[in-house]
Design goal:
With 207 residues, the protein is mostly helical. Helices cover 73% and strands 0% of the residues. Helix 5 (86-111) packs antiparallel against helix 6 (116-137). The chain starts with a helix and ends in a 15-residue tail after the last helix. Residues 6-79, 91-165 form the Glycine transporter domain.
Length: 207
């Protein structure tokens, strides 16, 4: 099994769990769990493949990804009540999923010989769009847009680091690993230490 395949499976699994946790907070039924889990797990990769004209889309080419999302939803449906804080678990699992998905999207774009700018954008889209779809559908403020938090910034930094590292070392595996680490460290720092970007504050208009 190739590194990219492993990254895709890991991304699908962890993002599906986060989707199912969001569904549990929204008190959805089992079908709702499966839908939100699969939307979260497959949404970013689907948009990436559409933009890259990658045919067939990854989960159509390999429906195991879809089955993995549904299985994760079922497991969370039966066990979510055991978690002391589903929201805290959601935040930290989402940070891991973000790092893995950014690496997966970046690696797939690299394998298709895309330019550096496109590679970075595909890493960001793969990492961010599934979670954005998840939160919008259930009516929550998307984690991607939380005030000042490092989310899209972490995805950008991770994907860009992978591209730069690859240009220096010429090794895809090391580059993707370093990129994933940078993504996670920034996101985790935002969650744990409160790292954030400056937030715009409106000022009274001048008379």
């Amino acid at each position: 099994m190739s590194l990219l395949t492993l990254l895709e499976y890991a991304s699908v699994l962890v993002f599906a769990i986060t989707g199912a946790l969001v569904a549990s907070r929204a008190q959805l039924d089992l079908v709702g769990f499966a839908f939100i889990a699969c939307l979260t797990a497959l949404g970013g990769g689907t948009l990436r493949d559409l933009l890259l004209d990658r045919n067939p889309i990854f989960w159509i080419a390999n429906p195991t990804h879809l089955a993995l999302g549904v299985t994760a939803a079922l497991v969370v449906f039966l066990s979510a009540h055991l978690l002391e804080s589903r929201y805290r678990a959601l935040l930290w699992l989402d940070s891991i999923a973000l790092a893995v998905a950014v690496a997966a999207g970046t690696g797939i774009a690299i394998s298709l010989d895309q330019s550096a700018v496109v590679v970075v954008l595909m890493g960001m889209i793969t990492g961010c769009m599934g979670g954005l779809m998840r939160d919008v559908v259930v009516g929550e403020v998307p984690l991607v847009l939380r005030q000042g938090e490092l989310y899209v910034t972490a995805a950008f930094a991770g994907a860009a680091t992978a591209v730069i590292t690859r240009s220096i070392l010429g090794d895809d595996s090391i580059s993707l690993f370093v990129g994933a680490c940078v993504t996670w460290v920034l996101r985790a720092g935002s969650l744990y230490f409160g790292w954030h970007l400056p937030v715009y504050k409106s000022r009274p208009p001048r008379v």
